[in-house]
Structures are given as structure tokens and as C-alpha cells.
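Quick one - first record:
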Amino acid sequence: MLWLERIVNPSFCKETGQLSQEDLDLDKKRMKFILKKKFRHMSGRKRLGLIWLILDPIVVSLVYLFIFTVLRASTRVESIFIGITLFRLVQVSLKTGMSSIKDFTGGLKAERVRTRVLTGSMIRYRIIDNFLQSGGVALILMIGYNVPTLGIFAFLLTAQVIGFLSEGVGMNLAPLVKKIPDIANLVNYILMVLFFASPALYPLSYTTGIHYFLNTLHPYTYFVETSRYFAGLDSEILNLDLRIFALFSVILIILIWRGYAIIDKLRWRMTTWS
């Protein structure tokens, strides 16, 4: 079958040569197939399907909202919604990145999926997933709590950025997770600790001393405090050293680029060449 033929540079695991219109059309079909299978896997046999992606951050936020506002009357509702939703995106995106090589071939053999198909599927999936997990919360913030339009836009943009950056970190861990699966469980425990230690459930201004200092070394802090600032909530972003934020951003962007390269290289190593 001609559509299975490909020209490959084995040293770098990248395709070379010109692609015909037929190749491009087939790549689009494969990309759609991978995305459909990924989302079908996410929704499983649940009747509500992808609606759970929207409901999940809302329900989790409501639970902690009850604990930290009704029981303690301390943190504003909007602040908790923003903090928990962004941290959930960190957790989900990291997990997706660590399992990328398994999830994004969509059942197709590695040698039948071009690099542009794999990366295109991953990028489209991340954009959709980020929006689904933040869109419902954004609607609640806009309608229920009159958060300004600029604040909603900043929140949705922050959700996209933090989702991509977290997935990039996860993709860099993918080869290690493949060799030592327990790494994934270790990351989950670390995230559990960071969830309660970082300003997800409360603004950074509620912390002091060493707790405050350690949070300034956590990239998540800068993203969530920025989102809270534009939403008109209590935020410490103007009191933080933005040079550290810039350094974090550069490092994370490099990790995204490196992550896609690692996943593609790992994918080709899993291919049996004849």
C-alpha cells in the first residue's frame, strides 16, 4: 500500500522529502482518528462523556469552597475557583505528558504516524482539553461573580499556557516513566503536597516566612497570582520578582520544545524496522 510508504532519517527519526496532497489528506484523517480515540478514551462509557471534563474542576472547587469559605469564612469564592482549576490543569497535563507515547498513536503503528500528525494531535488535544476544563469555571466566574471580561480572558489564557507548559514537563519525564513506572506515582504524591502548600486554595498573601519564600520558587504561583490580579482579587504578583517568572517561562518553553522532540524520538525507537 503506497500510503504506508515513508522516507525516514533513522538517525534523527524525522521524515524528509516532499509530501503529496494524498499524504497531507491522509495525515489529516489520522489526526482526526487519534483525537477522536483520545477523547473517547477520556470519556469511556460514561453517559455524560466529555461533560465530565467540564464538571470535574467545578465539583472539586465546590468541595474546597465549602471547606475554606463556609467552614472557615476566609477565602473568596472566585480565588478558590481560579486556584483549583489551574492546579488541576497542572496535574492533568503532567499526567498526559508522561503517558504521551502510549496515548497519542491512537492504536496506529508508530511507523504509520508522521511526526506532524503526532504533534498536531497533541497540540489540538491540549487546546481543547484546557478549554473544556477552564471554560465552565470561566462561565461561573463571569455570570455568578461578575468577574470583569479582562479577568476572564486572563484566566482562560493562563489555563492554556499552564496546560501546555505542564504537559511539556511531563513529556520530558516520559522516557523515565517508561523505564520506571513508579515515577508517575511519585509525581502524584509530590503534586498532592504542592496542592496544599501552594496558593491554590488561598492567595499567596495568606502565607508568611519560609512558606511565602518557597512559593515564590514555584512557577504555578506566578500564573495563579497573575490570573487573580486581572480578576480583581487579592494578589501578590506585583510584589514578586518578575525576573524569576521570566526565567521560569524560558525554561518551561524550552522543555515544551524538548518534550515534543523526546516523544517523537521515543516513538521511533519503539518501531520495528524491517
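second record:
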Amino acid sequence: MMGSVTSSDNPLGQLSAYPDEYDASLLFPIDREESWKASGQTRADIQFFGVDIWNGYEVSWLNAKGKPVVCRGEFRVPASSPYLIESKSFKLYLNSFNQTRFVDAESARQRMVVDLSEAAGAEVSVQFHSADATYPTAPEAILIDDLDVDIRSYEPDASLLNTQEGSHFSGWLVSHLLKSNCPVTGQPDWGSLYVFYEGNEIDQAGLLAYIVSLRQHQDFHEQCVERTYRDIQERCKPEKLTVYARYVRRGGLDINPFRTSEEGFEALNFQSFRQ
């Protein structure tokens, strides 16, 4: 099933029965271009590489003898895929495995690979991690949240982004003040934004004010990150740029969009302090 954000088939914001038997039809893909078209642009206007990393903390199925298996699922959807997967439909889909028997973990994993790849329109990577698995270490980054800034806008304002000519910077910056709102339900989405920047030094106070300007903006996680990437790229023209949001989980899932100018730059699936 392919759909629009505003489609009546979109399960987000609606009462839903929670299935307990496997059902791939629960997945609801949304065209990544939809939000861009609404603003008179296309995703092709910005060039990037990237991936959407999902962590599923309520992944479970039954083994051949009926005993429950639990794990954390890591799902990587290429940013180049034509469709993103709506989060509530993803949750319902994963819940449909709860009372379904598989002969082994690999059978369950392969089933997810096939279904998610079909929904996204591109090859999706699926990994299972045990309950005691550790996470990679987050990059060392300069925290910009303590800067004293005068906030005047709570809607995206690219004019806040500027550089300091003659001063070069290379490294990670981070803010935990990221907030945007779901375009369907209006519920808040909280997160941490990591930015790797190399080039004429970006004004950190302006970057922080820009991040806060997303506070009342309504869009999906993936599109908020792409907007931020585009605005920094167009306003500051860095030599290298990566924008990586680590969003707080909701409904047993967190979504972590990663966009970068550098092909082959690995997206580490670390945890932020609220995940």
C-alpha cells in the first residue's frame, strides 16, 4: 500500500487494532517527495548520501516450539529510497510478529528484509542485537546549548545561518534542543542534532537559533533533517557537511536520519542521552 500523509489509509492519528499475527500489509510507505513538492521544491535540488536508522526495542516472535524471542532490531533504510515508512505502521507491522512462529532468527530477519525493502522501494538492512549488546560511542562534539542566544523565531529561518570569514572549523557540533512536530498528529518529536561541519567557521549561536526555529515546524523526522542539511549547505557552503538527528523513541521505535556530503561516511548507531 502506497499513500499520502493525508490519506485516510494512514494509520497515524487513528485508533488501531494491534495485530498479533504476521501481516506485511500493515506497512504504509509515504513518498519522500511529498513534503518537498508542497514547498515547490524537489529532493533532487540537494545532493547528499545517507540512511534512516531505526531501532526497534519491542521486536519479538515465537520460536519453533512457541517460546518467545526478544531482541533489538536495527533497520537501515537508504535515503535514496523513493519511500519512507510511516512510523505507526512500522510499529504495527513489528507487533504482528509477536505470536508468529519462525524456525530461527534468520527466517524472521529475512522476512523483514523482504517486506521492508518492498515498502521502501530499495534494499533495507536488518540486524538483530541481543539484550546485552553495546552501542558504538557517540562522536566527540562541541555542545552549543549553553550559548546565550535571543530567540525570535519558532518556524524554520535559514537566514539565521551564517559563517565567519577567514576562520576555519572542522568538527562535530551538537544540540539537544531539537524539537519538531508530527505533521499528522501535531505531537512533539524530541531529539539531539549532530552536525559535522568543515569550512568557513559556522556561527554557532546562529546554528543554535536555527535549530530552535524548528520547534513549531510540522514535518517528518527525515524531512526535518533534509531541510536542515539543505539550509546549512546553501547558506554556509561548507566543504564537508553531515547532519544527523537522534530522535527520542516513541512506541518502541526511534528514528535517526543521517545525511552527508561524503560518500562512504559511516553512520554510527550510537545512543544519545534520551534514547
